[in-house]
Amino acid sequence: MSAIFFGSISTLADTSELQRRAFNEAFEAHGLDWNWSRDDYLSMLDSNGGAQRIADYAEARGDEVDAPVVHATKSQIFQALLGAEPLTVRPGVVETVQEAKRDHRKVGFVTTTSQGNIDALLAALKPHISAEMFDLIVNRDSVKKPKPDAAAYTFALEQLGEDARTAVAIEDNVGGVAAAVAAGVTCIAFPNENTTGGDFSAAAETVDHLESGQVLGLSRA
Fold this sequence. Notes:
Strand order of the largest sheet: 3-2-1-4-5-6
Pfam family, one: HAD_2
CATH architecture of the largest domain: 3-Layer(aba) Sandwich
Organism: Mycolicibacterium hippocampi
Number of helices: 9
Mean pLDDT: 94
Number of domains: 2
Strand content: 5-15%
Helix content: 40-55%
Order of helices and strands: EHHHHHEHEHEHEEH
Number of strands: 6
Oligomer: single chain
Shape: globular
Structural class: alpha/beta
GO molecular function: hydrolase activity
CATH topology of the largest domain: Rossmann fold
Radius of gyration: 17 Å
Protein name: Protein CbbY
CATH class of the largest domain: Alpha Beta
Largest sheet: 6 strands, parallel
InterPro entries: CbbY-like (IPR044999), HAD-like_sf (IPR036412), HAD-SF_hydro_IA (IPR006439), HAD_2 (IPR041492), HAD_sf (IPR023214), PGP-like_dom2 (IPR023198)
């Protein structure tokens, strides 16, 4: 058997601009005169972790900010936006999940975001994508180190009893690709609208839509 791993929220639905909007609304809610333009946000996407981005930005500006608190507000706003805004499953995702299941592959959702974000996303994507489609869902509480550390993928492989050599990860950002590759997992880069300019040279393929045959073909069962 082998496993197909979806590595982040935006590998299922492109939520990158909703994320940026949520950051800016959280800044306003906390009385901060910050507003991340798209260019600002793009420059931050080589790393994972919203709270760390806030902390780094505050340090660069010389501002005193409780980054975890601001990030918690951002998460609340983001989850509300997921429930209010129309979301579309990214091209080829449903077909890839369905084909993987038919072929008796295990399917995992391997993130280091909060379970609250995961729940809100999956609720918004029903009936096309649901928690029941995944054999394993990894969140930020599952491991001590977030991506780009390999811990999330190592944990997923251990939990499913799978070999990295017969697994394929789908990631939308450079840090996610680095995490998969560090765990020995073949990775397909599936950039979102804000990560298309990233350096995905470590990935086996870079695509703008998923082809189930291509994904499963890279998994050496």
